[in-house]
From TrEMBL:
Source species, domain of life: Eukaryota
Taxonomic classification: Eukaryota, Metazoa, Chordata, Craniata, Vertebrata
Gene from which this protein is expressed: xpo5
Name of this chain's protein: Exportin-5
The organism of origin for this protein: Sphaeramia orbicularis
SUPFAM superfamilies listed in its UniProt record: ARM repeat
Primary residence: cytoplasm
Length: 1216
């Protein structure tokens, strides 16, 4: 036996060395690995060989393998071992703990880890029933030295992780161990505290002796172990002895070697939830000693010239500790437990402010939620300390809003920290954008507390920026467009940008916080005058100037004589160009385009929010627009339509139908005339002529520009659609009914007494509608093969998605903005792609807004359903998914790409109910039928692609990306279709409270109870009831809903299964359904479980749906039992019992929860496993005799036999 063990050990040592040798060939390594794995699985010498290899005389790698062998034996062979063998192995393991390791500073961490795993695996199988003295044996081990003490701490930590955190045990074993731990927690906690205290004291005493490191190592292990228990033990153990543990942790914040682990423990403790009275002792951390150590550590936060990662990690934890402490403060102060505002609140806020002013952008961002909570708090926000700190916070925002700290640069101390926190400039840019948005929220809340101080800070900052010369920065920051211009990273630009955000936040709140007589109107007018007088030729700074003009405009309504100056400034910016000298204009860059668009947006915003104040200037405004249109100013189609949109907004204040209609007739005369001309009709109705008209069939060299005719034609088309869209979006009747009646906007009343309005733009829209529908039809036909072949070589990819669209679909972060400003379009192809995409979108925007704008005038158009079907649904087989996503959903519910979900609701609400049958049903029926067929085909292709496992096939990165893109497009299209279906049919449910990304499994598990009601109670909408009258449409909706639960999309599955499926099926469940249909519905749900059952939320929703179908239809359809019998590993006896209770009225009933559990066990065989679990070797841990009395089984007293009072309370009665 000994010889066999020695021989085998020699072979194993050689194999392990071969595996770990970097020079070993792949073939030899695989053979050695196979030998080692076969030994672990089959050899009867595992225990003796494992013990021999674990001897301290071997190398760490060999010892680790030997210990792994022992762990494998315990995990997979323990149930088959004799009791004598178990005892012997346990004693050997304890011997290894006692003297099987080197000293604490010499031993490898992975050896300690595997030793702790071995012990914990035995504890999980034997404690407490068969190993009652385990805790005493662990305590005895600590007396043997620092190495053993550290190992005991590791064992206790891993035990807590396996039992409480990861729950890697069967329910009964986990309950036994957890309850035993809880019963012994006083002694366990005291034991760990004593270990920590002793080793900290010894560490401090021996700080100049070599042995102090050993005590430090044990103290770190004790802190880590405490962290594993603090999260779940009763709060009493944490707050015992006047919060002795928390006080000790605060003291350790000053120990460089222990402060990180101490902060971790402190964070977990302070983050605990529970009853407020139980958390009241946490306020002791605001006492002098504790707050002194916290404040000292925080104020030394930025004192290091060189970044030390461990120190930086400690600062992150300490910052989180402060934030958690603030959360407890906000919960306790002002609550029923009567906690006063702490006297040391000022010191706490100084510590918080120290992190808010730290160089690290990450640390700054970590404090925002706490500042927001303090400023929102009803009691604390009125405290003088908080008010004083609010002003200091506003001052800090002047620095924090500035976008600096890119990891690729070295122009600020924050860059050093960004190198640790962010992988790239793109990563930092994405973070900072979110960070600044959060800052804006907190800044607005702070401005409510100290509005006048906030105004003063903003005013000083703006005046400083106006007075400061422009600093373009070093050569890496300067713009390459023209000499003396800035880039987005230039010092002046980042300062102007930050100040502008501050100004916007402040002005928005000052009007809400102060009465009109207290508003600083005179000072704000001085500021506005300074801004209006400021002149700059830099487009980036001018954009900030325009934002400040818009931000300060609310003050202008109190000084209306400033209005012409404001409008002049904005009109001047609409025609902004960069001149490079000698009246030569530089190429129009993105910055220039943004300035011009910014000016247009500002005018629209002013006209939208303050039309009554602009109305006196209408003639001046209109004349200036006409002058711009007729001059040589190179306005783009978007700029022209924006000015028209602003005019329409002002014209709504006429409140006179005839006058407004006459104005709109004049405004749109040339647009409507050209749009309805014979020439345009010829273009819009014929795909070949259309392609020639826009230049898509012409070959254009990149070095040369396109022919002027084609680009002008595209501009004409774009302008017509933008103009129509602006009018349809903005033209409205007065909101006040009396004003509307007086102005001639009301033409009658419905039978319910609601007024029927008419829109002054109706005539123009109706005249334009035929060609609009023709353009939609033509664009769909562009994807037909004969028209695709007409595209020139230059524009052969014109219908493909742009890179930006692809990134949006894939959820990739957008690249960092080009530091040096570039032209808007880089290639002719991009220009054409942008044109086709925008044109396609705007067609549906116009058609979509028509329903809300015209209302009854739109829905009463003769043959509207046929017209839309004959244009929007033409040639859909050729339309790619990224276009189709925009097309049918947007058309049917008249809204387009970006927010079809919101617009769908608006259209359904605006469409009179009497037109459901004539308009919506003829559109929805064919749409849902077609989309179901198309999506089914798409998902079949995706599933086939996933199931193919051809190892010889090597996919290129571009091919993989394309497949991912196609799959995500199908997923998004499917979500839009099902959103449309649910909004049509289901009341009282908003799917878009849920995220539109894949829900991670752990998040899904957390939200099971929250998002899955016990019984869906949603009812059909009026539109749903209308659709139900058409059997073919209703069956299509049912088929689409039940098919979708097995598509590869967990979000769709949960949404549809939790509400839609049963809401639809319940309407027909009492009718005469075909047995084949009932079987198909049920098997569809089971297929969904096979696909998504590993996700807890999907499992819950699908199981509930399956049970509802089974319970409601099983009594009439025996075919459902035949389906159940086919489920793998089903317990037929349990199925018989379930059926008996279901179908026999006299049978004993069980509670709903128990019934659900029974049904879930019946269908458990259908639940699919995640890929990571499919080939995992199962670990089986047997239950031991229970230590605790089993709870009495649940029983429904109302349905049980009558019991007398004596019998009901009798201890011998087992009926309850």
């Amino acid at each position: 036996m000994a010889d066999q063990v020695s021989t085998m050990c020699e072979q194993l040592v050689k194999a392990v060395n071969v595996i770990m040798d970097a020079e070993t060939s792949q073939i030899y390594r695989l053979e050695a690995l196979k030998f080692c794995e076969e030994f672990k699985e089959t050899s009867s010498l595992c225990v003796p060989c494992g013990l021999k290899l674990a001897d301290k005389g071997h190398s760490a790698v060999v010892r680790h393998f030997g210990l792994q062998v022992l762990e494998h034996v315990i995990k997979f062979r323990w149930n088959n071992m004799q009791q004598q063998e178990k005892v012997q192995l346990k004693e050997c393991a304890m011997q290894l703990l006692s003297n099987g390791t080197h000293s604490i500073l010499e031993e490898e961490s992975h050896i300690k880890d595997v030793l702790s795993r071995i012990t914990v695996e035995m504890i999980k199988r034997e404690w407490p029933q068969h190993w009652p003295d385990m805790l005493k044996e662990m305590e005895a081990l600590t007396s043997q030295g620092e190495s053993q003490t550290e190992l005991v701490m590791l064992i206790l930590l891993r035990l807590a992780e396996d039992v409480i955190t990861f729950q890697t045990l069967p329910t009964q074993r986990r309950r036994d161990i957890q309850q035993t731990l809880t019963q012994n927690m006083d002694s366990v906690f005291s034991f760990m505290m004593a270990i920590l205290h002793v080793n900290v004291e010894n560490y401090r005493k021996m700080v100049f002796v070599n042995k102090h490191e050993a005590h430090c190592r044990v103290a770190v292990a004790a802190l880590n172990t405490l962290a594993g228990y603090i999260d779940w033990v009763s709060l009493v153990h944490i707050t015992n002895n006047n919060c002795q543990l928390l006080e000790m942790l605060c003291l350790l914040l000053s120990e460089p070697e222990l402060q990180l682990e101490a902060a971790e423990c402190l964070l977990i403790a302070i983050s605990r939830k529970g009853k407020l009275e139980d958390r009241k002792p946490f306020m002791l951390l605001f006492d002098d000693v504790a707050i002194h150590y916290i404040l000292s550590a925080a104020q030394s936060a930025d004192g290091l010239a060189i970044l030390v990662e461990r120190r930086y990690n400690f600062l992150k934890r300490l910052c989180q500790v402060l934030c958690a402490l603030g959360s407890q403060l906000c919960s306790l102060v002002g609550s029923d437990v009567e906690v006063e505002v702490p006297t040391n609140l000022s010191k706490y806020m100084e510590a918080l402010l120290a992190f808010t002013t730290h160089s690290s952008q990450f640390l700054k961002s970590s404090t925002l939620a706490t500042w927001g909570a303090l400023f929102r708090h009803e009691t604390l926000s009125k405290d003088s300390v908080v008010v004083e700190k609010a002003v200091q916070y506003l001052r800090a925002c002047m620095t924090n809003l500035v976008k600096i700290g890119f990891p690729s640069r070295n122009n600020n101390p924050s860059c050093m920290y960004s190198c640790v926190d962010f992988d790239s400039d793109e990563d930092f840019n994405s973070f900072f954008n979110a960070f600044r948005a959060q800052q804006g929220e907190v800044l607005r809340i702070a401005c409510r507390i100290v509005p006048l101080e906030a105004f003063q800070i903003a005013a000083e900052w703006l005046q400083y920026q106006i007075a400061s010369p422009i600093d373009t920065g070093d050569t890496t920051c300067k713009s390459k467009t023209a000499e003396g211009l800035c880039s987005i990273l230039s010092p002046s630009v980042v300062q102007w940008d930050a100040m502008t955000i501050f100004m916007e936040c402040m002005v928005g709140q000052i009007f809400k916080s102060l009465e009109e007589e207290k508003l600083p109107i005179d000072q704000s007018m001085e500021l506005l005058q300074a801004v209006l007088n400021y002149e700059t030729k830099d487009p980036l700074i001018l954009s900030c100037v325009l934002t400040n003009v818009s931000a300060l405009f609310p003050f202008v309504i109190h000084r209306t004589h400033f209005l012409p100056q404001v409008l002049y400034k904005l009109f001047q910016a609409i025609t902004f160009e960069i001149e490079t000298g000698q009246d030569i204009k530089a190429p129009r860059t993105r910055a220039v385009k943004n300035v011009r668009r910014h000016a247009c947006s500002s005018i629209i915003k002013i006209c939208r929010d303050y039309p009554e104040f602009i109305l006196p200037c209408f003639d001046m405004f209109y004349n200036h627009v006409k002058k711009l249109f007729s001059s040589n100013a190179t306005l783009t189609h978007l700029e022209k339509s924006s000015l028209m949109e602003a005019l329409v907004l002002i014209s709504n204040q006429f409140k006179d139908f005839a006058k407004q209609k006459a104005f709109l007739d004049e405004l749109l005369a040339s647009v409507v005339a050209e749009w309805t001309s014979d020439e345009m009709k010829n273009v819009l109705w014929d795909p070949a002529v259309f392609l020639s008209f826009v230049g898509a069939d012409q070959v254009v060299l990149e070095q040369s520009k396109e022919t002027d005719t084609a680009s002008l034609n595209r501009a004409r088309l774009s302008f017509h659609l933008y103009a129509m869209l602006g009018v349809v979006k903005r033209a409205r009747w007065p909101a006040d009914l009396e004003e509307a009646k007086a102005g001639g906007f009301v033409v009658g009343y419905t039978s319910a007494g609601a007024p029927i309005y008419r829109n002054p733009c109706t005539a123009q829209f109706l005249a334009s509608l035929p060609n609009l529908l023709a353009l939609i039809r033509t664009q769909n036909r562009l994807f037909m093969p004969e028209n695709m072949s007409r595209l020139s070589e230059t524009f052969s990819r014109a219908h493909e998605m742009t890179d930006m669209e692809k990134n949006m679909v894939l959820g990739l972060t957008q690249p960092l903005l080009d530091i040096h400003d570039t032209p808007v379009y880089k290639t002719n192809l991009e220009r054409m792609q942008g044109f086709f995409t925008t044109l396609y979108d705007n067609c549906f925007h116009v058609l979509g807004n028509a329903g809300v704008c015209l209302q009854r005038d739109f829905y009463t158009i003769d043959g509207l359903a046929e017209e839309i079907t004959g244009s929007a649904f033409v040639s859909l087989d050729h339309v790619p998914d990224h276009r189709l996503q925009k097309c049918p959903l947007s058309i049917v519910f008249a809204f387009s790409l970006t927010c079809s979900r919101v617009f769908v609701k608006q259209l359904v609400q605006s469409c009179p109910q009497e037109y459901y049958d004539s308009l919506l049903c003829p559109l929805l029926g064919p749409l849902f039928t077609y989309m179901m067929q198309r999506l089914n085909v798409k998902w079949q292709v995706i599933n086939q692609r996933s199931s193919i496992n051809d190892e010889e096939e090597v996919c290129q990165d571009s091919q993989v990306t394309q497949e991912m893109l196609e799959e995500q497009l199908v997923r998004l299209l499917a979500r839009d279709v099902l959103d449309l279906l649910s909004n049509c049919d289901v009341n009282s449910y908003d799917f878009h409270h849920m995220s539109d990304i894949f829900v991670e499994e752990d998040m899904m598990m957390d939200s099971v109870q929250a998002v899955s009601p016990a019984q869906p109670t949603e009812e059909l909408t009026e539109l749903g009831k209308c659709l139900m009258k058409h059997e073919n449409i209703y069956m299509t909706l049912l088929t689409l809903s039940f098919t979708s639960v097995s598509w590869k999309d967990t979000t769709n599955c949960h949404r549809t299964a939790s509400v839609v499926c049963w809401t639809l099926l319940r309407q027909v469940v009492s009718g005469n359904l075909l047995p084949e249909a009932v079987t198909w519905f049920f098997t569809s749900v089971l297929r969904g479980l096979q696909m998504h059952g590993q996700h807890e939320v999907c499992n819950f929703a699908l199981s509930q749906l399956a049970m509802l179908i089974y319970e409601n239809l099983r009594p009439r359809y025996t075919e459902l039992r035949a389906v159940m019998i086919q489920i793998p590993n089903i317990n037929t006896e349990a199925l018989d019992q379930f059926d008996h209770r279901l179908m026999d009225p006299s049978a004993q009933k069980v509670g709903e929860k128990k019934r659900k559990d029974q049904f879930r066990k019946l269908i458990a065989g259908t639940v699919g496993k995640a890929l990571c679990q499919q080939f995992r070797k199962e670990v089986h841990i047997r239950n031991l005799p229970s230590l605790f009395k089993k709870p009495k089984p649940d029983k429904d007293i109302l349905n049980s036999e009558t019991l007398g009072l004596a019998a009901l309370f009798a201890s011998t009665n087992d009926g309850l």
